[in-house]
Amino acid sequence: MGTSSKRLSRRGFLELSALLGVTAVAACAPAPPPTATPAPKPAAPAPPPTAAPKPAAAAPTPAAAPPTPTAAPKPAVAAPTPTAVPKPAAKEAVTVRVTYRLTDKPEMYERLFPRFAQENPSIKLVGEPVSFGAYEEYFAKLASLMAADTLGDVVWVSAGSGPFLSQVAKGFFRPLEDLVSAANYDLKVWYPSALEALKLGGKLYALPSDMHPGAQFIYYNKKMFDAASVKYPTSAWTYEDFVAVAGKLTKRSGDRVDVFGWAPWTTSWSQEIIARSHGGSFITADGKKSAVKEAPVGTTLEWLYDLMHKHKVATRKQDIAKDANEMFYTEQAGMTTALSGFIFSAPARIGDKFKMGTVRLPKGKAGKFGGMVHIGGQAIYAKTKNPNEAFKALAFIVGLENALIRALEVGGTLARRDLFEHAQLAEKGGDNWKVVLEAMADPDLKPYFTPDNFRTSEMQSVIDQNTDAFWTGNQTVAKGLDALDSALNVVLAKPR
After folding, report:
1. Torsion 342-310-321-327 (CA) sign
2. Which residues contact 64 (CB under 8 A, 6 or more apart)?
3. Domain 217-370+451-492 in this protein, CATH class
4. This model's pTM is above 0.85
5. Tens digits of residue pLDDT in 361-390
């Protein structure tokens, strides 16, 4: 009787355990206890008495009996369907559309897109180059895309002669500070002057793309200098020295000039660089009025006019069939003006005809070199639905590897310090590239001359149209200055 009650108590314990164990798995678990007639089977515990000599083994036998109840809820083994639930379909990659100029060439611009896709399988980059004729057409097409709300997520913009700041003011692009912070992106790779040129109201609206310090570089034919016994110019030369050197390089047949000492650029922004070296600008510091009647601009215009018409050592507008640089390639001019990328693009045109040297325009009356930040950028459309992915794509596009491809193959340089100082550029550019590095590090290098109303293109057109008469010789600077001043003030008075 004592033994029997002991067995019963153990059975009760086992039943309770089985009950607790299966209730969480099957709602019908309480039913087994009544049908669990195996419990009254004393026969199951009987074998232990037969094995009486081993009382210790008698306890395990009842322990082996419970597997019958646990085996009963075996349906519960199939029940863990949660683990067998089908995996959710892989998330579709986010598409980031990239709008850029067709002149940047898809085969170059998009070359590393496949690698980006490998490293970022959740983002799909789609390039959308914009074709255009005249430079201004690119911005006109951007405006059309903005109006139709079909602009890409990442967009190439121009903060130099392009209307980028005007577009920012109209709300087309978003500030980047929050994305820069979230990505822990290091802005120190960029020249500070480049970042400043892409800001409005203290906020950064693009990461720098291609940049150069303006048309402040004079490229010269070393063979011509040697033949004329003229020393190569240095950064210590003056505007007076410039005139003297150009005179020694000029070759004439009677009144006809066969070889000019200099083939200059006469664009508004080339003139602005000389004016800055004299301490001035074509517009006032607040960008609201004309400053062409002030001394720095007058000095600039008179100097250029005299080189062409008084000294006759620089090309007039009518002397140039194609462009000033073409005259340099064909040795019709001993010097020419060009941008920094000329160092990489010109050798292919020059071939083995001569070696080329580089120097900056002289310091002017202000005791400084002229210079001006021309810069493109990569901005993010204000209406993008995927700003974080767009920023990741943007950072990739302006990364060092892409920048190096661009610099070595097409001559465009992104405003990254590690690019300008890269060993491959130093090797390819040689001593000429050192002159560019000096210009980029110049503390006097300032942003583009942008009017307060952002009508940069109109301002430039007015300057170009009114000064063309000076470069053809159809009008003197003294007689044309008032008209230039009036026309410029009309543009600067317009609203944003």
Report:
1. negative
2. none
3. alpha beta
4. no
5. 999 999 999 999 999 999 999 999 999 999
